[in-house]
Design a protein that fits this description.
Structural class: alpha+beta
Distance between the termini: 120 Å
Shape: flat
Number of domains: 2
Number of strands: 7
Largest sheet: 4 strands, antiparallel
Helix content: 25-40%
Order of helices and strands: HEEHEEHHHEHEEH
Low-confidence stretches: none
Strand order of the largest sheet: 1-2-4-3
Strand content: 5-15%
Radius of gyration: 34 Å
Number of helices: 7
């Protein structure tokens, strides 16, 4: 007689946790792990060689700012951050000012802010924003700035997205063809020019008036 094999039913699959249950489980796990983890620090140690040493894990707000203001040079038992012109510029690009950065470092360093770091921040901040880069689809220039003033004051130019870049130059959001057409519809006679500033010559097409009918 052949032996009879009994199949055991697979264990039931637990139902997925709801968002509230997941949050409760995460909080419980955090409480269990908290005594085993070092307390996050609220300070760093600034060095004279344009570095900062974090002797342990940092509080999240402090770490977030340092990640923008400095580059991580090494990790281990302590994290070493390095301040560079590029990293300081990155913080300025993010909306910080030189005064903000000085105050932040003074508040979160257990050592005095070294002069080389203060000089670096001030030097980068002094040059930051002297050059401005933007986008323009077309431009119109005229040696007579009064003509450009007239264009800007005309309500019909609103759709061209004009903005004065210099006394004799306006930038536009519309493309060159649209700018030419818009200015001509306002009664002006603009000419298109090349990237080198030469007037572009276009081939004219003959146009015939429709035939007149005899009265």
């Amino acid at each position: 007689k052949l032996p009879v094999h009994h199949r055991t039913a697979p264990p039931p699959v637990p139902a997925p946790l709801s968002p509230a249950e997941q949050a409760t489980a995460s909080a419980a796990a955090a409480r269990l792990l908290a005594p085993l983890l070092p307390e996050p620090l609220d300070h760093v140690l600034l060095q004279a060689d344009l570095t900062a040493v974090a002797p342990g894990p940092l509080q999240r707000p402090l770490a977030d700012v340092l990640d923008v203001l400095a580059d991580v040079e090494s990790k281990g038992g302590a994290t070493v951050y390095r301040f560079t012109p590029g990293s300081v510029r990155r913080a300025l690009d993010a909306g910080q000012t030189a005064a903000d950065l000085h105050a932040f470092l003074a508040a979160h360093s257990r050592t005095p802010v070294p002069q080389p770091l203060a000089y670096l921040i001030d030097d980068v901040a002094r040059r930051h924003g002297h050059l401005r880069v933007g986008a323009a689809s077309a431009y119109v220039r005229c040696d007579d700035d009064a003509v450009l003033n007239e264009i800007l004051a005309d309500k019909r130019a609103a759709g061209l997205g004009l903005r004065r870049l210099a006394p004799t130059v306006l930038a536009a959001r519309t493309d060159p063809a649209g700018l030419l057409e818009g200015l001509r519809s306002m009664g002006f006679a603009p000419a298109a020019e090349s990237a080198e500033g030469d007037v572009l010559i276009t081939r004219a097409h003959a146009r015939r008036t429709p035939p007149r009918t005899a009265p």
